[in-house]
Amino acid sequence: MNEGFENLRRFTKTKDKDKCKELLEAALDKETFIKFIESYINDDKFYENINFSTFNERLSEGEFRQLNHKHHLPILWDTLNSQNFTEYDALNPEMWLSITMQAIKNDIIKPSYLAYDSKDDKGEGYQEIKEAIESLTDESMVKGKNIPFWLHTSRAILRRMFGAIQERGQKGIFQDVPFAIAWRKIYLAKNISNNTGLNEDDIIKYLVSNPTNYNDLVEKMGGKLTIIADKNIRDGLFQYLLDTKVQIDTNYFKEITKRIGIESTWRGMGVLSPEDNKEIIGKLKI
Fold first, then answer.
1. CA dist 24 to 117, 232, 247, 249, Å?
2. I need a surface site. Which of 46, 66, 188, 213 has the fewest CB within 10 A?
3. What pLDDT, in 10s, does the model give residues 29-44?
């Protein structure tokens, strides 16, 4: 990673209030924001590694937070896949920073969208920024957390562009960056569908309709329980999820993936077929 990118990540970690103020104020205006971010980029090929111009769909804030699986996801996939975008590329935070910046330059999104509060479905990024700027003076804290509102919102803006990779590695990309989340869902759906014959659209709809389960899946596959990333186990899990009549809420999903990890230590589920694993998962007592 280049030094400029490291410096861009660093000022929220060091809680540099002046730089956060500059970021927050810049996020209210497209040209000012572009100038601010580009001041940290010293890579001549930053915008050349991927061309996002063919994604010419102007998004609302709600659509940016969760791209429509029937309309926007196929366009996103075609835009990146036509340039041989790989899973290796998807693990590069600077790639998503470039994509997000191109989206802002091309008026696909507004920079204020980046500040949305993931805990508040009705919150607007613009209002989050205004309140964060006010907190620079009154030092108001995020409700229930020991963190100034200005710092929380500054970190949110950067997370939406390239992920909280310092704290969570690749999970920070696939849980925080809206374009990366959308790509990851369709990537998983295509892989699982190709391996199992399950309907790709059904898989995408499940991932889109169950964001907390998706986040837990990313959490487990990215480090907490990597056995879930084994394609025979992962695919067996999805065969079970799409076929079961049991209501799979977040707690149930977390528990079943945890039990799969335990079960696999003595059954060697990674060498079994997805169909065999589906049967095993269906018999687990939760």
1. 14, 45, 42, 36
2. 66
3. 999 999 999 999 877 7
